[in-house]
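Thanks for the sequence, V.! I ran Single-stranded DNA-binding protein right away. Repeating your input here for the record:
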Amino acid sequence: MTLIGTIGTDLQKQTTTTGKEYLKYAIAVNSRTKAGDSVSWFNIACFSPNQIDFMERNLAKGSKIYLEAEAKNTSYEKEDGTKSFSLMLFQSNFEVLLAIVVIAVAGFPEPKHELVLVRDDFSAEYALETTSDSAELLQQPIAVWELRDDRAVHLGSILPDSEEEEAHKRDSDEHPRVNI
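Predicted structure:
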């Protein structure tokens, strides 16, 4: 089975009853039809030590990936003692399509804001949380990095927008787009 979707949960490293480590997460897959948009969620388990290491170091909730996996029905016991079944996808391969990069800005105590790098043409889209410091953050230069072949590459910086563009941003429901 192949999927393209967004990691929708934190990556959780767990251990089986036999002592084998694996990475557990969920992926959201968007579908667009004439009837409207929908989202399907899939539970993923990754047992490859190399993939686990790479994913833990470089991916986070919100990263978009291409995933190859084998689907299996699994059973588990609920808290009330009843047996239940779920579909689990066992990851065999993946590729990063979109990486979430946590950015640090001078004057801010810890990186809370994320930059999403989109395509190979280096266009980028970023979304700021609605916080009291968001307006101040937009007045600061932000470094932009992309993950390439297991290393971070500096692409440039996002410079503060003019006041007119800021007013448009405040009135817009969409996230701003930044071309690098």
